[in-house]
Amino acid sequence: MTHKSPPKIYVAGHRGMVGSAIVRALADLGQTHLLTRTHAELDLIDQAAVRAFFLQERPDQVYLAAAKVGGIHANNSYPAEFIYENLMVQANVIDAAYRAGVKKLLFLGSSCIYPRLAPQPMAEEALLSGHLEPTNEPYAVAKIAGIKLCESYNRQYGVDYRSVMPTNLYGPGDNYHPENSHVIPALLRRFHEAKVNQAASVSIWGSGTPRREFLHVDDMARASLHVMNLDPATYAQQTDPMCSHINVGAGTDLSIRELAETIQAVVGYPGEIRFDTSKPDGTPRKLMDSSRLHRLGWQPQVALREGLEQAYAAFLQALTAESGRF
Question: What is the rounded radius of gyration, in angstroms, for the C-alpha atoms of the chain?
Fold first, then answer.
């Protein structure tokens, strides 16, 4: 009797927050045949190098988590880099995967693909139904292209390339850079520094009224594996060939003010919060309709307060281990 060998799984972007969480989730399931490459080992913008890698390694499955990401400031400052690098990485990996015979691929996108004023909560069908948020339009256009690449290769070549669109993520491996980080790591750092420096107040961009949804990255990783491994018939029942992406969210949102107050409590900062209304708010509200994924049998496990406490503990560990880095 022959035993079926475990699948060879390539995780693109394995050092990033989502990619590293997917690697952890795969390892937890006992997957031992994992394939990774650092940027120094494989530049995903280099088409020839990507094709050579796939033809040599011929993975069975691909998780495409590699991306150039950042917050409002980064997206405003480097729009050309955000659209070019993400378009190139996606096109190179998806096409090379097809050419190397990869049948199963999961592309990770972003909730910013939806129109700025999309009906809330945002359902998958809202894609391409209105104007995007200007502050991250280049990144969003690239991610929309990634979805359509997967759908087009499915339709023309009969492969099984799926897409998941996470809400705002946080957790282990997050970026705490003072200018290029997302809202949760930025606020954790800002409140911590204010606490250490005994600052009287903390200034936060915008009015505090926009509402956001947040999901722990380990929940996102579990959702990614869940979607990748769904039976094709089950997946097809809940999707459409030209609207095949699946939202991944926690199902609830809160205002930036409420988030700031929660992080203030987690950090233990006693001062005042001030909102700088001269700075942009971004999209007024971003709540995902994740009912499609819930019908497919997935639910989040990490509550926000619990996740924020874990994130702050990880931030403090990083400060201790690599003092001077942040």
Answer: 20
Average pLDDT, the chain: 93
CA atoms within 13 Å, Cβ hemisphere of 171: 23
pLDDT at 326: 47
Amino acid found at 86: N
The amino acid that residue 207 corresponds to is S
Tokens of 326: 């942040």
Q: Mean per-residue pLDDT for 181-193?
A: 90
- Annotated active-site residue 139? The verdict is yes
Candidates 242, 246, 241; CA nearest to 226 is: 246
Q: Cβ distance 63 to 22 under 8 Å?
A: yes
Catalytic residue among 10, 63, 98, 139: 139
State how far the alpha carbon of 149 is from the alpha carbons of 83, 101, 162, in Å: 15, 16, 10
Q: Max CA-CA distance within the chain?
A: 71
Pick from 259, 241, 260: nearest CA to 250: 259
- List Cα–Cα distances, 108 to 104, 166, 224, 247, in angstroms: 13, 8, 8, 10
Per residue in 75-130, pLDDT tens? Answer: 888 899 999 999 999 999 999 999 999 999 999 999 999 998 899 999 999 999 99
Integer Cα distance of 137 and 279 in angstroms: 18
Indicate if the pLDDT at residue 25 is higher than 90. Answer: yes
Q: Is 168 within 8 Å of 213 (Cβ atoms)?
A: yes
Helical H segments across the chain, by residue range: 17-28, 47-57, 72-77, 79-99, 137-157, 183-197, 217-228, 232-238, 256-267, 291-295, 304-321
**pTM to 2 decimal places:** 0.91
Map tokens 């950042």 to a residue.
70
